[in-house]
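TASK: fixed-backbone design
INPUT:
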């Protein structure tokens, strides 16, 4: 067996073993592979220390002239035949040196004056202390919250509605005339185009591109709204705008209803098929169903509530004026005291029904 030794790094040696044909292992023998490289650690045996200080004159005399000590070189310093002597030189290696170098390289520690980038969130530290650390580089500290980006929702007026289209085209929001919002999802997009320069018999080829939102389709199939978080942010950001739209809508509706009240009262009183008592009962019910201010006082009334209550008071005044005109107190069809007492016992409103004052 022939072998040679060489050193790849301090404390490690590489042995290349080459076998002669006569010593080659059996075919398929993976243990003895020709040309194998084996790396291992060598721990040299320290050479014995030879000192002449411990031998005194008396000891030398006792040994006699014929027993002189023969000076011999240590066995590990002798050159072995067939191998260079410099390859046998071994150096002691500190086992901690490699670990320290690896650790310093991993942590990026250079020298004095530098500190490790410690995350103070794990140490419950403060940003001010770590900002003032004596280090040439920025120390890592607790992350400051990023300012929230408020998207700019741009609506376009289409008739009596406001329409918002999401930038990525995934959905469209329509603010109705009463302030409500209707979402329309666009989970599948089909785009048609033409291939320039491609013609056959004077006809152009048309291309169709189909895009689909897989996540949105899965959420919709599971009964959840696609882009739910984005839509919730849209509703929250447009709340004030939609409340103003709703107030304007309710005011317009109340004005229209108040204008129709006069015609409705005329139809009730002019219905000759009903008795006078039945017609007076319908006028009372129309008065009693008008809205009133909430008496609980739990919170402030909204603009819509104020509008409804204002219109309700105007409607009641119009009803009482109508009663005073078609059934005056001194006329034959006037409300009697018994009728007024019975109606007030059955009323839902807190206000007393007193058409004559």
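OUTPUT:
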């Amino acid at each position: 067996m022939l072998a040679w030794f060489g050193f790849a790094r301090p404390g490690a040696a590489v042995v290349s073993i080459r076998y002669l044909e006569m010593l080659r292992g059996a075919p398929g023998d993976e243990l003895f592979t020709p040309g194998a490289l084996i790396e291992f650690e060598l721990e040299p045996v320290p050479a014995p220390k030879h000192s002449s200080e411990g031998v005194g004159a008396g000891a030398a005399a006792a040994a006699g002239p014929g027993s002189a000590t023969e000076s011999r070189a240590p066995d590990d310093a002798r050159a072995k035949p067939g191998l260079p002597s410099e390859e046998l030189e071994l150096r002691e290696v500190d086992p901690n040196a490699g670990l320290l170098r690896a650790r310093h390289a991993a942590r990026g520690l250079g020298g004095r004056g530098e500190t490790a980038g410690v995350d103070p969130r794990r140490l419950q530290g403060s940003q001010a202390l770590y900002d003032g650390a004596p280090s040439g580089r920025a120390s890592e500290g607790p992350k400051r919250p990023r300012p929230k980006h408020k998207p700019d929702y741009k609506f376009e007026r289409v008739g009596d509605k406001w329409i918002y289209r999401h930038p990525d085209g995934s959905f469209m929001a329509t603010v109705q005339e009463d302030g409500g919002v209707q979402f329309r999802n666009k989970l599948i997009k089909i785009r048609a185009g033409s291939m320039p320069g491609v013609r056959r018999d004077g006809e152009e080829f048309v291309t169709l591109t189909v895009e689909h939102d897989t996540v949105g389709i899965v959420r919709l199939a599971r009964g959840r709204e696609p882009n739910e978080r984005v839509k919730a942010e849209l509703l929250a950001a447009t709340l004030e705008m939609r409340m103003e739209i709703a107030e304007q809508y309710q005011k317009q509706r109340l004005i229209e209803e108040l204008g129709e009240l006069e015609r409705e009262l005329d139809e009730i009183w002019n219905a000759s098929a009903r008795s006078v008592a039945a017609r007076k009962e319908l006028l009372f019910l129309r008065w009693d169903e008008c809205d009133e201010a909430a008496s609980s006082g739990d919170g402030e009334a909204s603009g819509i509530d104020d509008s409804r209550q204002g219109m309700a008071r105007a409607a009641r005044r119009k009803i009482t004026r109508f009663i005073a005109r078609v059934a005056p107190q001194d006329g034959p069809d006037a409300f009697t005291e018994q009728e007024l007492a019975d109606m007030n016992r059955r009323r839902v409103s807190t206000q007393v029904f007193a058409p004559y004052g």
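COMMENT: Residues 116 and 306 are 64 Å apart (CA to CA).
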